[in-house]
Automatic annotation (TrEMBL):
This is tRNA(Ile)-lysidine synthase TilS/MesJ. Keywords: Transferase. It comes from Fusibacter tunisiensis. InterPro entries: Rossmann-like_a/b/a_fold, TilS/TtcA_N, tRNA_thiolation_TtcA_Ctu1. CDD domains: TtcA-like. Pfam families: ATP_bind_3. Residues 24-203 form the tRNA(Ile)-lysidine/2-thiocytidine synthase N-terminal domain. The keyword Transferase applies.
Length: 243
């Protein structure tokens, strides 16, 4: 956990993610990333140079099989206030709209519910569990399906809700999160979503895994390339220098 905590601390402090008096909510899916993030933010709170308040919120999508008891017990153990927002998002996405590409609509609706709960509870920062490997797969998703070079941001602003979204794990490799989950015996809930492990993101992750076998350290090089702003030379709409 120490290593992940160190990475997270550096990210938070170098991007100024949390300020004195902030009221931070962790979006708690019950999955490994957000469960680890909640535990590490709680730890960070005890020695951080700024004072901030921490809570957790789960948007219950309305799948019958979703059991949040372990998440409730985890928050109680950490002494973190916990709110569960019950919704029928699953029904809207899968039954009413019969979405072919349900993930985008689902994420949008979830974000709306999260901001409503945050407003009602006077919370101003939403911490999400995305890590470095998510940033990489997002880059590929955007390139392959949206034709743009774009990835997750460290900090973004939801102007409609006046909320900042922060991603304290964005410099952390997924392997470090997994190691922490195992060493700290953090409970992880099984996702009730029928799309779990069947998304485009999953296929991209598989592709990146295969690439790693063919080109060792490709993941690391790709992340380095993403950071290498000085060497970023892409086609621009400039005049042909030969004319
Ligand atoms: N139902 C939910 N309620 C609250 N926050 C959520 C919920 N689902 C996802 N989130 C937040 O959004 C982040 C990204 O969601 P995504 O579905 O991509 O999860 P993930 O990468 O599998 O992470 P995790 O392991 O935390 O589920 C999560 O890490 C979490 O912070």
């Amino acid at each position: 956990m120490k290593k992940l905590l160190g990475i997270m601390r550096r990210t938070i402090e170098s991007y100024g993610m949390i300020s004195d008096g902030d009221r931070v909510a962790v979006g708690l899916s019950g999955g490994k990333d957000s469960m680890a993030l909640l535990m590490l933010l709680k730890k960070y709170q005890s020695f951080a140079p700024v004072k901030f308040h921490l809570e957790a919120i789960t948007v219950d999508m309305g799948f019958n099989t979703f059991n949040l008891e372990a998440a409730q017990a985890f928050c109680k153990m950490l002494d973190v206030p916990y709110e569960i927002a019950k919704t029928d998002i699953a029904k809207v996405v899968f039954e009413i709209r019969e979405e072919k590409n349900p993930c985008a609509l689902c994420a949008n609706m979830r974000r709306g519910v999260l901001s409503d709960v945050m407003k009602a509870r006077g919370l101003n920062k939403l911490a999400l569990g995305h890590h470095q490997d998510d940033a990489l797969s997002t880059l590929f998703l955007n390139m392959l399906y949206a034709g743009k070079l774009n990835t997750l941001e460290y900090i973004s602003y939801l102007s409609r809700a006046d909320i900042h979204v922060i991603r304290p794990f964005l410099d952390a490799p997924e392997s470090e999160v997994i190691r922490t989950i195992q060493s700290e015996k953090i409970p992880v809930l099984k996702s009730p979503c029928p799309m779990d492990r069947r998304t485009k993101r999953e296929s991209i992750n598989q592709m990146l895994e295969n690439l790693e076998k063919e080109v060792p350290h490709s993941r690391k090089s790709l992340v380095t390339a993403m950071r290498n702003e000085a060497q970023c030379n892409l086609f621009k709409n400039k005049k042909d220098p030969l004319k």
